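Severity: low
Component: inverse-folding endpoint
Summary: output formatting inconsistent between runs
Steps to reproduce: submit the following structure tokens with default settings.
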């Protein structure tokens, strides 16, 4: 499990962001995009000397962060490859983006933080913010007596991974796992609010996200169009009343995930995976699985390294490696991920490997044999 920051540090950062954030609902015709200034070095390589900005009529000009820039391009229907190619021609890029801002006549939610545009979202996007999510689940986590194993807020998402020693079991001899919960949210349109089951392996401190019990809540709110620019206030009383039921759902499911029956169900899946042997060359299985789930070359190499190293630690012979060992090698690789967001992706992929049915697992092994 990738290390993050302690709970109090993350809470303090969420409180700071809550104060520093400003949201605007604006008619797209009142927005103006300016591309960052670029020059070329002596070898002809493009050098960006200034960030692109988005001007909100009557408010201010805001520098645009990379995620929001991608969201603008996607909304305008400009393919990412072409958008990037136009960076070398700022006038052309500005013409394309501003044409669609005028032509679409849509209403957009522009989310800013520390004076930057961090998200460019649809008018129906419902603001379910990380501070509110954290304050909703914190009392439940305290009541359940869990230990916060990892906590982080990134540019795109909030993560809280908590574990309880009340429910634990043995997958194989001396291979103990404990129950846990992962709560995740995003303020910038990068995924839904979710509560998911978590398995924590003591022998290597890996975390595996299990999709057995989960809540996924879309950010869908009002869609009223506007002819101007309207600042959205977080402390809106109507919003608070509307969101109360949702936060109650989040608290209820957090408790439900930290239930013995959920843990026993996941423990059974782990034990089943520990009996599903890799029947083909493990290297070929890892190569094939990596392509199917979208692992990078470095991640694939990490999975191979941890697969064989873990076998030495746990005493499993190479000829008896299993689907459980493959899943653990993937979740162990999460600790080496370049970002916390990618670490979560790998923990979830590990859970998906655990969830593979017998037919799919057999097909993967057969395909690896044919590729050998």
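Observed output (run 2 of 3):
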């Amino acid at each position: 499990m990738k290390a993050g920051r302690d709970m109090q540090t993350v809470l303090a950062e969420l409180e700071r962001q809550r104060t520093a954030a400003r949201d605007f609902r604006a008619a797209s015709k009142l927005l103006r995009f300016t591309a960052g200034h670029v020059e070329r070095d002596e070898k002809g390589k493009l050098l960006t000397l200034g960030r692109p900005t988005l001007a909100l009529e009557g408010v201010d000009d805001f520098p645009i962060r990379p995620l929001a820039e991608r969201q603008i391009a996607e909304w305008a229907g400009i393919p990412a490859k072409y958008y990037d190619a136009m960076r070398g021609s700022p006038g052309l890029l500005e013409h394309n983006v501003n044409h669609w801002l005028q032509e679409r006549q849509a209403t957009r939610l522009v989310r800013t933080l520390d004076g930057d545009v961090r998200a460019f979202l649809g008018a129906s996007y419902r603001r379910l913010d990380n501070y509110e999510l954290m304050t909703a689940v914190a009392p439940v986590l305290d009541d359940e007596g869990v230990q916060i194993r990892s906590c982080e807020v990134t540019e795109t998402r909030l993560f809280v991974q908590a574990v309880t020693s009340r429910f634990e079991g043995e997958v194989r001899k001396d291979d103990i796992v404990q129950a846990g919960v992962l709560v995740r949210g995003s303020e910038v349109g990068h995924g839904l609010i979710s509560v998911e089951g978590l398995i924590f392996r003591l022998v290597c401190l890996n975390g595996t996200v299990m999709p057995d019990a989960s809540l996924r809540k879309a950010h869908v709110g009002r869609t009223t169009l506007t002819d101007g620019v309207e600042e959205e206030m977080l402390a809106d009383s109507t919003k608070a009343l509307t969101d109360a039921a949702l936060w109650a759902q989040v608290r209820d499911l957090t408790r439900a995930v930290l239930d013995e029956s959920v843990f026993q169900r996941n423990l059974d899946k782990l034990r089943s995976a520990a009996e599903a042997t890799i029947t083909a060359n493990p290297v070929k299985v890892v190569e094939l699985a990596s392509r199917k789930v979208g692992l990078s070359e470095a991640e694939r190499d990490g999975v191979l390294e941890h697969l064989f190293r873990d076998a030495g630690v746990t005493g499993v012979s190479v000829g008896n490696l299993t689907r459980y060992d493959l899943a653990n090698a993937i979740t162990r690789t999460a600790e080496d991920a370049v970002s916390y967001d990618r670490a979560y992706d790998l923990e979830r992929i590990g859970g998906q490997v655990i969830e593979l049915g017998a037919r799919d697992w057999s097909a993967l092994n057969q395909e690896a044999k044919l590729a050998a």
